[in-house]
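Milestone M4 deliverable, item 7.
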Amino acid sequence: MDLKSLNPEEITDFISELGWETYRARQLMSWLYQKRVSDFDSMTDLPLKLRKELKRNAIISSLIPHKVLLGEDGTRKYLFSLKNEGLIESVLIPEKDHLTLCLSTQLGCALKCRFCYTGKAGFIRNLTTAEIINQIEAVLNQLKDKERLRNIVFMGMGEPLANYENTLKALEIIFHPSGFNFSHRRVTLSSAGLVPELRRLGKDNPVNLAISLNAADDETRSFLMPINRKYPLAELLKVCKEYPLHHRKRITFEYVLIKGVNESLKDARKLVDLLRRIKCKINLIPFNEHPGVNFKRPEKYRIDEFRDFLLSNGYTAIVRESRGSDIMAACGQLGGNIQLLPDN
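Output delivered:
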């Protein structure tokens, strides 16, 4: 049994089944996630008998980067090999005084959004809870002195809510005081809009939410994102309005601006009307060009015009210049290395 695929409740149950006090589960989690120790013999505040039982009944998995690519802007892309299945990718994004880590939840993706490179290779499988969590540990182990990981975003390869149970368990470990102990306000999950799972998430663990929107009408959104044919905008926005938000928090709507597709002032007017009754902010992401897709990034004046129209109508709208595009680490570019890379 891989201990890192167990959420806090499951670890407690496991320890209880071995006949030990429940507080030993908290000690064990602290060794796993705060001290990041993978050797049972080093867990010196656990009784020797318990350590021996753990060695017989459990394993502690890890991920070691296959490669780390460094972008011109300091962005780091970590490539993790899943034996012979392919690579998953995590991206460490430098900010002014901290770092943000972008996690993957699937190997490939089944949603086939037209602007996203990840879906080009198709869907291979869901990541386990351990494979999600081990991305965090691997990156933390490679941080330099004084580097600080402050934010975690579930915005990498795959749709997090299509891997609901493992994503939820990973969130529980990230937030738990004996786990990685991140504040809720420092973790954001991005979804293409799986309505039933969004509703469940609001009840199970209402993490900060970002919705990949990208269009303000069903025709355009269905063209860009086939998932919209199953869960059209009216259904998606209804669940967004009902999503429980912490005090002073807003849903983030992500809108990839694509030349000739969704970046006109007419599109901006539709967006203003669409989101009028939702407590939100809007991240505008100029399309990051990549091989195999004919979409283009809009001209700068078009981007500014779109943003300014939203601002003039009372919205918080920010143009997010993606990081790491030179190493295929920017928004929509992950998965370019899904097959194993050569060593040279």
